[in-house]
């Protein structure tokens, strides 16, 4: 245990990712994650600024998804997974015993790598979250929620005549935007995206990126991406992970133009990954 | 062409890829494999065809039964009791056998038959005719005092003759019907009073020692009760157990043991379940013997592993991305299960359940252990009444030598197979209908 701690500080020494100034939306302190006996994350410290896009980059298997899934406690669903450390959302400990994980997941929406709409109508896909959280007053209110969510996800124009057709009948890019709309419908503050474009073609990717850009006005977004170009295009802050350690974090421009760590440099130059 | 290929694929050590001899061997092996497969399929199909041919050719006649049309004179005097009143009781005890025989006698124009002739006349009619005539009167009393035409059952021997399984040319002393009776039968046929009709009795009669009045009604009702009990007991318990094991149970030694034992349970011979039912439900809990309730419970135990295994497979087949999606928008584990996983697993669960029910419907051995082999004449009205089951009825009829029972054995087999086919078809249909892409 001690060994891990010392090596961890050594590894993450250059950057802690702790910002000063405006209070961050999410703060992670000394987050370690274990899958059974295997440790997947080592003492990650990261602040996620409000109403901006934070990109998590790094070679595959380095723990980006694992970290992301800590933020809405999706890791709770994996029996062997254990999380230590402290993660706060608006200064509230999300691993606190009194905190309702169901409510947390309404506040922290998630979009997955592969578009995963429910095999139901577009309408029901969006309506599901608000319904189970009791956010719906009546039928017209629900219709309103569905419309504004689709509107915000830039999908309303394309689907307004077929909201009662199955969501699985949409194209891949539309499905992913439907999933974003579904996440928005529970009025979250934070949206987590785990490689949301990796299953999409370039045009659909461009649309989603554009959407991320717009959503930034009202939401705090954390996005995992394997594409450095994408991280550069959409994010204001970038965190580079490497085999379980947060190696370097900073303004996106700085990370890409002037990386401090050797490993970050190598990764960005495309020497591994 | 061949040469370019050969040079192109020449390996470093000089051996050539696509060596013609090797290719030839490979094709030959492939061809042989196909031939074996087709051969196996052919043999299986052949036996299936033989099976169906023998069942249907021997069994289809069970769906027809020889009936005789009698003009029965219902004289008021025959229904009056000692006080000259016609009551329910007096109707019940009237001598219908004599009325039927008299009717047959006058139909055949016999003035004053001798004793043996009377016996022979009686021998043309089924013993069930008295009930048939009584039913006619009990359903409509106004016919008393009239002469009414009634179609009644011919005796089993007559039926066998009409269906061709008694040879007219065998010497009289070795024939169940004598020459006089044959002459009467021919006369009745000529007058259009004796013919084969659809055998509704097969579906409305209970047990009987006479083939012509033996039917499947009690077995059908018993099997229906048992299927109902299996559906009500095994399905909810099985689905709940499977859902718990798949979605909630921790992975530890205890659940591993449960898992292994469920699989073992599926392989336990069915007779063992019969013994268990006898020991637990009848001897320990004191439930009645021969009752379809006990049969249903035993079959439920037997079907449980099938339902659990099928449901677990169906739940596991639901893509994890759907679960993640539901959990991601804040659904609880229960909501994820009930709103998303179970509805998507439903076709698989239904298919597994129907396959379990089909197994249960055809199961015989455990039912023999718990006394469902009873001779039951009256319809069971509750699952606590004595009953039999379809396959048990087949088993019981199969042990009778009379021609009428042989054809009923096969006829009942056809009925059972029809149920199984319909249920299997329903399983296939449901699977197709609910099959979804994601
Ligand atoms: N459910 C799991 N069970 C066990 N190990 C896991 C599980 N999920 C991820 N891991 C391990 O954790 C490490 C980080 O994985 P992940 O966070 O998915 O990486 P990334 O998203 O950066 O590619 C990997 O070594 C992976 O093998
Ligand atoms: Mg990942």
UniProtKB/TrEMBL annotation, chain A:
Ligase among keywords: no
Region (Disordered): 1-20
InterPro entries: AAA+_ATPase (IPR003593), ABC_transporter-like_ATP-bd (IPR003439), ABC_transporter-like_CS (IPR017871), P-loop_NTPase (IPR027417), PstB-like (IPR005670)
Domain of life: Bacteria
GO cellular component: membrane
Transmembrane segments: none
Keyword terms of this UniProt record: ATP-binding, Nucleotide-binding, Phosphate transport, Transport
Compositional bias segments (type: Polar residues): 1-10
GO biological process: phosphate ion transmembrane transport
Domain annotation ABC transporter: ranges: 26-268
An example molecular function term from Gene Ontology annotations: phosphate transmembrane transporter activity
Family, as annotated: Belongs to the ABC transporter superfamily.
Record-given protein name: High-affinity phosphate transport protein (ABC superfamily, atp_bind)
Source species: Candidatus Filomicrobium marinum
The gene coding this protein: pstB
UniProtKB/TrEMBL annotation, chain B:
Membrane topology per record: Multi-pass membrane protein
Start and end residues of each ABC transmembrane type-1 domain: 220-427
InterPro entries, per the entry: DUF3333 (IPR024573), MetI-like (IPR000515), MetI-like_sf (IPR035906), Phosphate_PstA (IPR005672)
Pfam families: BPD_transp_1, DUF3333
Keyword Transmembrane part of the UniProt annotation: yes
Residue ranges of the TM segments: 35-56, 216-245, 265-287, 293-315, 336-361, 410-430
Keywords: Cell membrane, Membrane, Transmembrane, Transmembrane helix, Transport
Compartment list: Cell inner membrane; Cell membrane
Cross-referenced CDD domains: TM_PBP2
Top-level taxon: Bacteria
Family stated for the protein in its record: Belongs to the binding-protein-dependent transport system permease family. CysTW subfamily.
PANTHER family: PHOSPHATE TRANSPORT SYSTEM PERMEASE PROTEIN PSTA, PHOSPHATE TRANSPORT SYSTEM PERMEASE PROTEIN PSTA-RELATED
Protein name: Phosphate transport system permease protein PstA
Organism: Filomicrobium insigne
């Amino acid at each position: 245990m001690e060994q891990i701690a010392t090596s961890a500080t050594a590894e993450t020494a250059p950057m802690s990712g702790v910002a000063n100034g405006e209070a961050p939306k999410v703060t992670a302190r000394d987050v370690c994650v274990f899958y059974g006996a295997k440790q997947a994350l080592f003492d990650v410290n990261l602040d996620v600024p409000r109403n901006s896009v934070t990109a998590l980059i790094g070679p595959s298997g380095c723990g980006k998804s694992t970290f992301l899934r800590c933020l809405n406690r999706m890791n709770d669903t994996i029996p062997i997974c254990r999380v230590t450390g402290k993660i706060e959302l608006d200064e509230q400990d999300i691993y606190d015993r009194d905190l309702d994980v169901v409510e947390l997941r309404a506040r922290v929406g998630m979009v997955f790598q592969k578009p995963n709409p429910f095999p139901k109508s577009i309408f029901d896909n969006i309506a599901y979250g608000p319904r189970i959280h009791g956010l719906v007053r009546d039928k017209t209110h629900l219709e309103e929620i569905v419309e504004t969510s689709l509107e915000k996800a830039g999908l309303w124009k394309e689907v307004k005549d077929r909201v009662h057709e199955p969501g699985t009948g949409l194209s891949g890019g539309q499905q992913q935007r439907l999933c974003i709309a579904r996440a928005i419908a529970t009025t979250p503050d934070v949206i987590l995206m785990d490689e949301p474009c990796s299953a999409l073609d370039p045009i659909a990717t461009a649309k989603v990126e554009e959407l991320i850009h717009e959503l930034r006005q009202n939401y705090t977004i954390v996005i995992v991406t394997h594409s450095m170009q994408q991280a550069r295009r959409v994010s204001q802050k970038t965190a580079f992970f490497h085999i379980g350690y947060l190696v370097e974090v900073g303004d996106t421009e700085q990370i890409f133009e002037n990386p401090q760590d050797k490993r970050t440099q190598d990764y960005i130059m495309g020497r591994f990954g | 062409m061949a040469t370019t290929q050969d040079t192109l694929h020449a390996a470093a050590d000089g051996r050539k890829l696509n060596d013609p001899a090797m290719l030839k061997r490979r094709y030959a092996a492939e061809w042989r494999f196909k031939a074996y497969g087709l051969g196996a399929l052919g043999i299986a199909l052949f036996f299936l065809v033989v099976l169906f041919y023998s069942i249907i050719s021997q069994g289809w006649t069970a769906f027809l039964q020889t009936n005789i049309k009698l003009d029965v004179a219902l004289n008021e005097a025959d229904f009056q009791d000692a006080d000259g009143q016609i009551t329910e009781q007096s109707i019940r005890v009237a001598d219908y056998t004599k009325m039927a025989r008299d009717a047959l006698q006058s139909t055949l124009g016999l003035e004053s038959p001798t004793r043996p002739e009377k016996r022979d006349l009686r021998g043309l009619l089924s013993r069930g005719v008295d009930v048939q005539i009584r039913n006619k009167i009990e359903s409509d009393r106004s016919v008393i005092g009239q002469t009414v035409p009634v179609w009644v059952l011919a005796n089993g021997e007559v039926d066998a003759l009409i269906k061709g399984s008694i040879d007219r040319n065998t010497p009289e002393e070795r024939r169940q019907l004598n020459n006089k009776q044959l002459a009467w039968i021919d006369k009745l046929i000529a007058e259009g009073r004796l013919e084969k009709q659809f055998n509704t009795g097969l579906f409305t009669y209970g047990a009987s020692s006479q083939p012509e009045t033996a039917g499947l009604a009690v077995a059908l009702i018993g099997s229906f009760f048992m299927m109902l009990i299996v559906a009500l007991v095994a399905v909810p318990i099985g689905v709940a157990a499977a859902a718990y094991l798949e979605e909630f149970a921790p992975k530890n030694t205890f659940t591993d043991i449960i898992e292994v034992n469920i699989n073992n349970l599926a392989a336990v011979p069915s007779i063992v379940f019969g013994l268990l039912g006898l020991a637990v439900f009848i001897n320990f809990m004191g439930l009645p013997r021969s009752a379809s309730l006990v049969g249903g419970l035993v079959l439920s135990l037997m079907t449980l592993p099938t339902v659990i295994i099928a449901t677990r497979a169906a739940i596991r087949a639901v893509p994890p991305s759907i679960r993640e999606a539901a959990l991601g928008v804040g659904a609880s584990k229960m909501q994820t299960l009930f709103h998303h996983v179970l509805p998507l697993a439903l076709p698989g669960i239904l298919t597994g359940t129907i396959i379990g029910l089909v197994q249960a419907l055809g199961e015989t051995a455990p039912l023999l252990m718990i006394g469902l082999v009873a001779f039951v004449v009256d319809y069971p009205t509750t699952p606590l009444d004595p009953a039999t089951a379809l396959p048990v009825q087949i088993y019981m009829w199969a042990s009778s030598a009379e021609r009428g029972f042989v054809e009923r054995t096969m006829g009942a087999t056809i009925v059972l197979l029809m149920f199984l086919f319909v249920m299997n078809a329903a399983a296939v249909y449901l699977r197709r209908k609910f099959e979804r892409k994601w």
